[in-house]
Amino acid sequence: MLFGVQSYWAQLFIIPAKIIKLIEGLCRSYLWSGVRYVTKKALVAWKRMCSPKSAGGMGLINMQVWNKAAVVKLCWDLANKEDKL
């Protein structure tokens, strides 16, 4: 799971855009080269990689959208007094 640690923290806090860009950069480097800190020219646009598989993408999650959705879900659960904590 490429975004495992990020998805855990994204459920609890709104992660700053700068940090999300850093995480996405590390993920892109890993996908294209297999190493975290080696930069290569991307063969496919990241936006397309985050597109659904049915639309020709890889189905990766957009971290900013995931982060906001996860925090809103937590707020919704708390507002509806569902025991999620």
Structure description:
With 85 residues, the chain is mainly α. The protein has one domain (4-79). It is 53% helix and 0% strand. It is built from 4 helices and no strands. It has helices at residues 4-10, 17-33, 46-49, 63-79. The model has no long low-confidence stretch (mean pLDDT 79).
Characterize this entry briefly.
It comes from Solanum tuberosum. This is Reverse transcriptase. The chain has 4 helices and no strands.
Short descriptors:
4 helices, 85 residues, single chain, mainly alpha, Reverse transcriptase
Radius of gyration: 15 Å
DSSP helix count? Answer: 4
Distance between the termini: 23 Å
The pLDDT mean sits at 79
Largest sheet: none
- Order of SSEs, N→C? HHHH
Per the principal axes of the C-alpha atoms, what is the gross shape?
Answer: elongated
| Structural domains: how many | 1
As residue ranges, the low-confidence spans are none
Helix content: 40-55%
Protein name: Reverse transcriptase
List the helices and strands and how they pair.
Elements: H1 4-10, H2 17-33, H3 46-49, H4 63-79
Protein name: Reverse transcriptase
